[in-house]
C-alpha cells in the first residue's frame, strides 16, 4: 500500500501509557482477559470519537530510512510464524461465531450470505473518515430483510498505519468498530507487517495477538472495549462459510509486487493454495471461491449465494470470483 499522508497536528488527549494501550514490549502489557464466547460490539451505541487517544507523530523520518534501504535493494520479505492447522489451515464461520450453528442454519436456509469487505482502513490523520465508513456499515444491520444483514467484515489489509504498531490499535481498529455488531476478520497488509527501522519491534506482533488468538480473549489493545480478539489460524487460511470459501493470503511487507513465497519466507503459502484448490476439486465445491490479496479494489458489501450465475467464470470446473469483482484484496 502507498504510505499514508502525514500530519503534524496532534490530538488534544495525552498519550496513554504503553501498558494501557498495548505497547510492543511484552513486559509492559497486562494479560489478556479470556472469555467463553466472542463479543463483537459494545452493549449500547456510543458517540463517534472526534480525536485519536494516542498522538501519532509523523512517520517521515522512518520512511526516509526505508527509501534509502530500498534504493540499495536491502528490503526483503520478513519471516512469519506458520499458522496452526497444517498445510491448509481452516476456520469456519461457525467457529468465529462461537459455535452458533443456529446462525449458520439461518444463513443457509436464506439462500445467500452477505458480508462486508474493506481495505486500507487504518489512518494516521484522525478518526473522521473511518467513522463515516464504519457508521455506514453498521447501518446495514438494520435491513428489513434478514437475508440482507451482513454476517461479518473481512478487512483486506493495512489495518494500522504505518507499521502495525500495537499502540495505535485502539484508535485505528477497536474504537472505529466499537458498535459493529458482527465478527471482524483480517488479512494482513504490508503495513501490518512492516517494522519501522527506528523502532524495536517484531513483524506482525500486534496483528497476530489481535487476529490470531488461540481463544476468545480481550487484549490490552482493546483499551477497555468489549470486542474479543479473532481466532484466525494465522496469516494465511481458508475461511469456510455457507456458499463461499475465502482463501486469505499474506503478501508480506513489500509491494509492487507483494511476495507469498521466496527462499526467506519459504513456500508454505504455495502449498496452502495448492491444497485449498485440490480440496475444492475433491469436494466438488459449487459455491464461490474468493482469493484475498490479489489486486486493489474499493470497499464494498458482497453477496454470495449457491448460484453459479453470480460468479464470474474464471475457471472451467468451479466458479471463482476474481479479486477485482468480489473486492477481496488490496494488493498489487
Structural class: alpha/beta
Average pLDDT number: 84
Number of strands: 11
In CATH terms, what is the fold-level topology? Answer: Purple Acid Phosphatase, chain A, domain 2
Order of helices and strands: HEHEHHEHEHEHHEEEHEEEH
Summed up, the helix count is 10
The main sheet comes to:
5 strands, mixed
Please give the radius of gyration in angstroms: 19 Å
Strand content: 5-15%
- Give the strand order, joined by hyphens, for the main sheet: 2-7-8-9-11
Instruction: Give the N-terminus to C-terminus distance in angstroms.
Output: 8 Å
Q: Choose one word for the global shape.
A: globular
What does this structure look like?
By secondary structure, the protein is an alpha/beta fold. The protein has one domain: Purple Acid Phosphatase, chain A, domain 2, CATH 3.60.21. It contains 10 helices and 11 strands. The protein has helices at 18-21, 60-71, 93-96, 101-110, 128-139, 169-174, 190-193, 205-211, 268-283, 323-326, and strands spanning 33-34, 90-92, 112-118, 153-155, 184-186, 217-218, 237-241, 244-248, 288-291, 300-305, 320-321. The strands form 3 sheets. It has a 5-stranded mixed sheet. A 4-stranded mixed sheet has the order 5-4-3-10. A two-stranded antiparallel ribbon has the order 1-6. α9 (268-283) links the parallel β8 and β9 (288-291). The longest helix has 16 residues, at 268-283. The chain is globular and about 55 Å long. The model is unreliable at 5-24 and 294-327 (pLDDT under 50).
